[in-house]
Design brief:
Length: 267
């Protein structure tokens, strides 16, 4: 029997807490080994976590095999750099930050580290990856979120765009996935993941709508390739944090299970 993979969580936000709960209940061959949080007392709000080691973010890679990042964008490298330098498996939730820190991908080639991007709140990345082995002509993603799910995004703040008392759908952004991830770092990490699976952040097109008529975070993807033409839509139930869907944490848990499972389904 191989020893279990030791999992370290950088951050215990809404997503991190749910991952921690599920690991604490028990998943074969996976062990929640360490967490890094600003306030150690917050660990006691998560069931069965009092005995888990609490450490600093940059120390997680010292004794963990896998580091799951769930931090504010400006703290991304604090978790990423040590994980890459130590040759660990790094699982980023702030996927858009990979576009701004591509040197980490280059460095991973040298250290033997792996960067595994979870599907998160999006679907069909396996189909996009398969199509990318051929020729993809275009990828377009349209995101619709309740206005509160987009509040305080840098793109809106810089342009003095207010979503208060919005009564009709409003397109707040249209452009590349790279620019969208930069302007909405806490909202459209899915667009960054989609771009990495397909034709890149500068060719993937993105629209973002603030829509008071929807209750769920909705993403529609259109792909035109030489092997297939397909469209996909997902409507995610928001978590306690309206910017994030409940499925995000479960996506990470599924990714972690896949690291140790004898059977893995999907590309």
């Amino acid at each position: 029997m191989q020893p279990p993979l030791k999992i370290g969580l950088a951050g215990l936000g809404v997503v991190g807490r749910e991952i921690a709960r599920r690991l604490a209940v028990g998943i074969p061959r996976l062990q929640l080994a360490s967490v890094a949080v600003r306030d150690p007392k917050s660990c006691h709000t998560v069931a069965n976590l009092p005995a888990v080691k609490i450490t600093k973010t940059d120390a997680l890679a010292d004794d963990c095999d896998v580091i799951v990042e769930g931090l504010p964008p400006n703290e991304f490298r604090t978790a990423a750099v040590p994980a890459i330098e130590r040759g660990r498996i790094f699982v980023p939730l702030s996927v858009g930050q990979l576009l701004e820190n591509w040197d980490l991908v280059e460095r991973a080639r040298e250290t033997g580290a792996r960067i595994l991007v979870p599907s998160g709140a999006i679907l069909g990345l396996d189909a996009v990856r398969a199509a990318a082995e051929g020729i993809i002509h275009s990828v377009t993603m349209v995101t619709r979120k309740p206005p509160q799910g987009l509040e305080n995004a840098p793109y809106l703040t810089e342009r003095n765009i207010s979503l208060a008392r919005l009564t009709a759908p409003l397109k707040v952004f249209e452009g590349t996935a790279r620019d969208g991830a930069r302007g909405f770092p806490a909202n459209v990490n899915v667009a960054a993941a989609l771009s990495l699976a397909g034709i890149g952040p500068d060719r993937t097109r993105l629209e973002i709508w603030a829509d008071p008529m929807v209750e769920r975070n909705t993403h529609r993807i259109e792909v035109d390739a030489d092997t297939a033409r397909f469209s996909m839509t997902i409507e995610n139930v928001p978590s306690e944090n309206p910017r994030t869907g409940r499925i995000v944490a479960l996506s990470v848990v599924a990714l972690l299970r896949g690291l140790v499972s004898e059977l893995k389904v999907g590309t």
